[in-house]
Specification:
Layout (H helix, E strand, L loop, with lengths): L7 H5 L4 E10 L2 E4 L3 E12 L2 E12 L19 E10 L2 E17 L5 E4 L4 E4 L2 E8 L2 H6 L14 H8 L8 H4 L16 H11 L2 E5 L5 E5 L6 E3 L5 E3 L12 E7 L5 E7 L14 E5 L6 H18 L2 E8 L9 E6 L2 E13 L4 E8 L7
Parallel strand pairs: 12-18, 14-16
Antiparallel strand pairs: 1-2, 1-5, 3-4, 3-19, 4-9, 5-6, 6-9, 7-8, 10-11, 13-17, 14-15, 17-20, 18-19, 19-20
Helix pairs in contact: 3-5
Length: 372
């Protein structure tokens, strides 16, 4: 959750206005200081073992000069970044929060044929246009920049230092990444092209999830959550659509690796209770091979982590429709105050229109705790 000034929650409980600002950069140069945003939305969600943020914008280009598709166009997809902020105002009070530093991935004019070529003169006549922009966080860039060859870790590298090396020149890393001091075995080599997958695997060993924060810095958040709590407004509409799918269930977890001399390493965890191993559900394991593990004990700990994540995924989703709060993030904990006591759950998705006073939040909860 983004840190806000005193009076934030009190202001949100009243009548507010929400405005969004966006500047476009290419390298160190500002190419568009202030885009005219007509509408847009930001979505942040937990997708597997990473948090992804996407932004959709509809922007005005009244002269057709912002996006020309020629080299030097102020707005383009050639490494251009959008730095987006949101300002919340109430009376004489206001506060501005960053939304994120996003990579522009796609630009699509909404108008049909805003450019016309006059063949007799060879001149183009440009008209005004409305542009739809699709933007993603800088994990998109990490994913795109694949390895050209296997890249072994440095000698005695820590997980944090190795993640920093793998993302150097792509995205800066924060202190939460550098604080991960567990060692990466020097024998490990990254044999495929998946740079982002390698970063995710390294952070998974430390039970961390990568997320690019609002300042465009790569952070490593605990899989159990950020530790920040968000109190669900009392006038929120809370709904659920319970479902079940056997294909999503496992009751055994196995993590494997090998030593530097090639000896196999293995650890496991088995479920108890109604999903017990060998019970009516059967024996359905999930397996993961993690070359960064160097002992059987580390494999066993990784198997228990897999078990805990699967148990968390079996919590039921709730949807909360409520007044907007641009400070809330995925992996914060949402708290619902009920007459029988508070019920909390990890936030897994947030969808927020950038100019509106409402948002939708998905959270996962212990379904039994909500029995009426």
């Amino acid at each position: 959750m983004w840190a806000t000034a005193t009076g934030w929650r009190e202001a949100l409980s009243g009548l507010i206005s929400v405005d969004t600002q966006c500047a476009v950069w290419l390298g160190s140069e500002v190419t568009v200081p202030d885009l005219v945003i007509q509408s847009g939305s930001v979505t942040q969600e937990l997708a597997g073992d990473q948090v992804q943020t996407t932004v959709a914008l509809n922007v005005a280009d009244p002269t057709g000069e912002l996006f020309t598709a020629w080299s030097g166009s102020p707005l383009d997809v050639l490494g251009h970044r959008a730095r987006i902020t949101t300002t919340v105002s109430a009376g004489g009070w206001s506060e501005t929060l960053p939304v994120g530093t996003m990579r522009i991935n796609r630009i699509q004019p909404q108008n049909r044929a805003p450019w016309r070529l006059y063949a007799k003169t060879g001149q183009w006549v440009r008209g005004g246009q409305t542009l739809s922009l699709s933007c993603g966080d800088l994990l998109d860039q990490v994913a795109d920049e694949e390895f050209l060859a296997p890249s072994p870790p440095g000698n005695l590298a820590t997980i944090g230092a190795e993640v920093q090396r793998l993302t150097a020149g792509i995205v800066p890393v924060g202190t939460s990444v550098l604080a991960l001091t567990a060692s990466v075995p020097a024998s490990v080599a990254y044999d495929d092209t998946d740079r982002l997958g390698t970063v995710v695997d390294l952070l998974r060993v430390a039970d961390r999830i990568p997320v690019v924060d609002r300042n465009g810095v790569l952070q490593a958040i605990a899989a159990t959550g950020s530790g920040s709590e968000w109190l669900v407004p009392m006038d929120a509409l809370i709904s659920a659509t319970p479902s079940a799918d056997r294909s999503d269930l496992h009751n055994g977890w196995v993590a494997t690796s090998e030593t530097e001399t090639g000896e196999p390493l293995r650890g496991q965890a088995l479920e108890a209770g109604v999903l017990r191993w060998g019970g009516p559900f059967g024996r359905v394991p999930r397996r993961s091979h993690l070359p960064v593990l160097t002992t059987n004990a580390a494999c066993a700990a990784a198997a228990r982590t897999m078990q805990a994540k699967d148990a968390a995924s079996r919590r039921r989703p709730l949807t909360v429709d409520c007044g907007t709060d641009p400070a809330v993030d995925v992996l914060d904990t949402a708290v619902i105050e009920l007459p029988t006591g508070p019920v909390s759950g990890l936030i897994t998705r947030i969808s927020r229109p950038l100019h509106q006073r409402w948002m939708t939040v998905d959270m996962s909860v212990d379904w039994e705790a909500l029995r009426g």
